[in-house]
Amino acid sequence: MRFPISLTASLAAYIFKKKLSNGQVRFPLVLMLEPLHACNLTCTGCGRIREYQQTISQSLTVEQCLRAVDECGAPVVSICGGEPLIYPPISELARRVLERKKHIYLCTNGMFLEKRLGEFTPSNRFFFNVHLDGLEKTHDMCVERQGVFQAAVAGIRAAKQAGFMVCTNTTVYKETDMAEIRDLFQYLHGLGVDGFMLSPGYSYQAVGSKEIFMGRQDIHEKFRQAESLLKRFKLNTSPVYLEFLRGERQLSCAAWANPTYNTWGWRAPCYMITDGHHQTFAEFLQQTPWEKYGYGQDPRCERCMMHCGYEPAAALGLNRKLGDSLKMALWALT
C-alpha cells in the first residue's frame, strides 16, 4: 500500500463521517502546525524566516500546540516551521500528538535528524518528511549551505535502520531539471525511502527571488515531463492532483482543509497568503471570506497550484469526474 492502512482507513472514515454530519462543507484534513519559525538554514524559496523575522525567536509551548490539535480535529498533523528538530520539546510534542491517535508528518531539512533520532519511537502513524530539492550540488545551492544534502542522507539512513517510516518532499522551481529529480528518487529509493511528495514552488510575498517560481503554463510543462520520468516511483502525490498540475483538469482550491497554526494564531486564509491571524479555529473558518480567494478571485492566487490548497480538493472530491473515486482508491492501495 502507498500509505499505512491505519492512515488510509482513518482518513476515509473521517471524511465519510464529516460529509454525513449536518452537511458540513468545510472541515480540516491536515493541520500545518508550526511550533516555531526559527531555522538553521536560509533557503532561497522560504518565506517563513522572512515574513516572521520580527518574532523569529518566539515559539509555542507544547500545551499550545496540543490545544490547536484538539481544536482543529484534523486526523493528520504536519509539524513544520521553521525547523522542528531545533524545537527543544519536539519529541514530547510528537509523543503526545500520537497519544491522540493522530498521524504525524514531521517536516525537516534533516540536518539534526541523526542527532535527535533516539528521542523518537517508530510508529505506523509517524513519518519523518525530509525536504530535498535535488541531488547534492543542486540541493545545497537551494538551501545556501554546503553539506546539507549529505547530512540529510545520513539522517535518512539512520532513520530507516532504526525502523522509522521516511518520505521526502521536493519543490519544483523554474530551473528544476526533472531528469535530476528522477535520479534523486532513484537514489532515495535505494535508501528505502517510503514515498515521495512533489509540488511546484510558489512565491511568498516575503520572498525576493520571484524569478525562481513558475507560472501555470511552466508548471504544466514540468509535470508533463514528470509523468514519464517519475511514473515508476511511489509518489505520495495523488493522480487527480497530478492531472491538475499537468493542465488536464481544473480543481477548486480547498485551502481551508489544511489550516496553519503558529505563534501568531490561525493564519488566514492559507499557508501561502497572510491577511490576518485568528485566535480560534472556529473564527478562522467562519470569518475568512473564502469566496474572495482562489484562481480568478485574488491576483495572489493566479499562479498558485500548491499541494496545501489543491491536494485536499482531490481528496475531498471537489470538481470530481466519473471514475475519480476508483482512481484514488487504486492509487492508495497500490
Secondary structure elements and pairings:
Blueprint lengths: L4 H16 L9 E4 L14 H4 L10 H11 L3 E4 L10 H10 L3 E6 L4 H4 L9 E6 L4 H8 L4 H14 L3 E8 L5 H13 L4 E6 L15 H14 L9 H7 L14 E3 L2 E5 L4 E5 L2 H7 L19 H10 L7 H10 L1
Parallel strand pairs: 1-2, 1-7, 2-3, 3-4, 4-5, 5-6
Antiparallel strand pairs: 7-8, 8-9
Helix pairs in contact: 3-4
What can you tell me about this protein's structure?
- The chain has 334 residues and is of the alpha/beta class.
- 38% of the residues lie in helices and 14% in strands.
- The chain contains 13 helices and nine strands.
- Strands 6-5-4-3-2-1-7-8-9 form a nine-stranded mixed β-sheet.
- The longest helix is centred in the N-terminal third of the chain and has 16 residues, at 5-20.
- It starts with a helix and ends with a helix.
- The relative contact order is 0.13.
- The mean pLDDT is 92.
The total count of strands amounts to: 9
Number of helices: 13
CATH superfamily: Aldolase class I
Taking the sheet with the most strands, its summary is:
9 strands, mixed
SSE string, helices as H and strands as E: HEHHEHEHEHHEHEHHEEEHHH
Weakly predicted, low-confidence segments: none
Corresponding CATH architecture: Alpha-Beta Barrel
The overall pLDDT, averaged over residues, is 92
What is the total number of structural domains? 1
Percent in strands: 5-15%
- Which CATH class applies here? Alpha Beta
**What share of the residues lie within helices?**
25-40%
Q: Over all CA atoms, what is the radius of gyration?
A: 19 Å
**Principal-axes shape call:** globular
What gap, in angstroms, lies between the N and C termini?
A: 5 Å
As an assembly, this protein is: single chain
CATH-derived topology: TIM Barrel
The structural class is alpha/beta
- Major sheet strand order: 6-5-4-3-2-1-7-8-9
